[in-house]
Specification:
Shape: globular
Radius of gyration: 20 Å
Structural class: alpha/beta
Number of strands: 9
Order of helices and strands: HEEHHHEEEHHEEHEHEHH
Strand content: 15-25%
Distance between the termini: 32 Å
Low-confidence stretches: 156-160
Largest sheet: 5 strands, mixed
């Protein structure tokens, strides 16, 4: 019934074009005395699923499971999330290559999810354009870059204009923070006494210097970089640089499925 009838009411795309799965969470009795089952629903467009399936097939690998990235990140942060009080919400922001995903989680269960089309690929392209360099050099420019916190893209430093690369990164991250703010506001407007306690940043984009402080200032919430090596107490990976650790949150969460 969930897959064939209920799912179509909540999907932003056609049910026929979606791969859907669900997990039963809990049963509750509403004010009318009717028993209702709370369901966690997951859906992706079939063409997205088929793309992954084709990649693994061409690689000669058998795909065992296809999982939403935020679920894998939740598994990595499981111990940290237990430190929050019941009903307390946190926002997981994964700045990936093709975009950024925000998931608002309460008691370990996602309540809201949105994909924003601003990721490291877009940041790299913006840097390349600002420096009049080939797109292929954007990745090198982004590595080791630090977000200037004391200026905006239109301000000056010591009388000189902000350098083009800093201005470009500020504009893109400013747009991303605005979209994250809209997503958080949308969630908060769904009911009374809703609030966000913490923002966790992961993904390759979270390795940009001072990005946690930038989002803390722009969003008004404490932002923390995900460090799965420290969180999970993995000693054999202690030599992994701090800037690379946030990008390991999802892959380690996938590995924990078998743990």
């Amino acid at each position: 019934m969930v897959l064939n009838q209920e799912a179509a009411l909540y999907l932003p795309f056609s049910r026929e074009d979606a791969d859907v799965d669900f997990q039963k969470l809990e049963t509750d009795i509403d004010d009318d005395g009717i028993e209702r089952v709370e369901i966690l629903l997951v859906a992706t467009p079939k063409d997205v699923t088929d793309t992954y399936l084709n990649v693994f097939e061409r690689a000669g690998l058998q795909l065992k499971v296809l999982e939403v990235s935020s679920f894998a990140l939740l598994r990595t942060l499981r111990n940290q999330l237990t430190q929050f009080s019941p009903g307390e919400a946190v926002a997981l922001v994964n700045v990936d290559c093709d975009g950024s995903e925000i998931s608002i989680v309460v008691d370990g269960v996602p309540q809201f999810n949105r994909k924003i089309p601003i990721g490291t690929h877009q940041l790299q392209s913006a840097l390349s354009r600002a420096m009049n360099l080939p797109n292929s050099m954007g990745a090198d420019l982004l590595q080791g870059m630090t977000v200037p916190l004391s200026v905006s893209a239109t301000e000056t430093i010591s009388g000189d204009a902000v350098n083009p690369s800093a201005a470009a990164i500020l504009r893109m991250l400013g747009d991303l923070s605005d979209e994250l703010r809209r997503s958080i506001d949308f969630y908060l407007n769904q009911g009374e006494e809703l609030e966000i306690s913490q923002v966790f940043l992961s993904g390759p984009g979270a390795g940009i210097g001072q990005i946690d402080e930038f989002f803390s200032q722009r969003l008004g919430y404490p932002a923390t970089l995900v460090d799965p090596i420290e969180t999970l107490g993995i000693q054999s990976f202690e030599d992994v640089p701090a800037a690379q650790r946030p990008s390991l949150g999802i892959v380690m969460g996938l590995g924990l499925r078998e743990a």
